[in-house]
Design brief:
The protein contains 11 helices and no strands. The protein is mainly α. It is a multi-pass membrane protein.
Length: 264
Amino acid sequence: MARQRSVAPFLTVLQSRIRQPQFFWFLGHFMVLYHGLKIHLRLFGVKNTQYHYRCCLAYLTVTYGIVLYQFVKSGQLDFQFATIRRRLLELDTLQYFVLLTSLYILSYGGFIDLNILNSLHIYSFFHCLNYFKENLLPFISLIPVQTRTTLNQSITFFIESSNRLCLRIAHDFEMSCVFMLSVRAIFYALSAPLYPTKCRLIGALIYIWFFKLRYIQNEQLRKDVDDKIAMVEKAPFMIQNPQLQHLWFSVKNTYLYVLKAMPV
């Protein structure tokens, strides 16, 4: 009986949380991590990898859809044709929702790029960790109060100390992804008459478009891009190798050309 009484408060809190959209937002991010782990473990073969990739996109679409729903419900967002472009430039949640919905649809046409998920897994991890710390951990009565306090402090310290580093890593993943997709987009465009690459080309262009929106809106991303380019160009192996420099500038100019040409 004592054990049941100790569990009851947490179950009561959990039942109340289930009635809130934020809980499903948390659950969506948790499922993204679950399917992402299966992808990275590579235990289930190509077909199942595609399945888990689509699951990640589907759950992420739902999580961002929940946030958008909350914005619409509270009157902070309205979908009018005249303002949709401005909303896309301002609201990163809408940018991610459009991207993820598009990628989910295009995955059935052959566009699957696991690298796109890397930064999203980092964001989901921090979302889950923060929600757990704020909304679930304080009410797990099976864990002693002192232990809960210590865990809370440890999680808070981890988030505060590693948030900037992990954000930079996520930006690095996004930069490398858009860099490769810029090169591949040109290949897809040139090979379109010979190979059925339409969905792959559209997928690459959508991600480049998304990255450009993020680049315009996010000052920290712009700084990280500039820092990364400067770091590569000042690296000793680059300075000491003129041929490598020439190759780098050719690829970089291709990337910048595609990014600049992408309308927003």
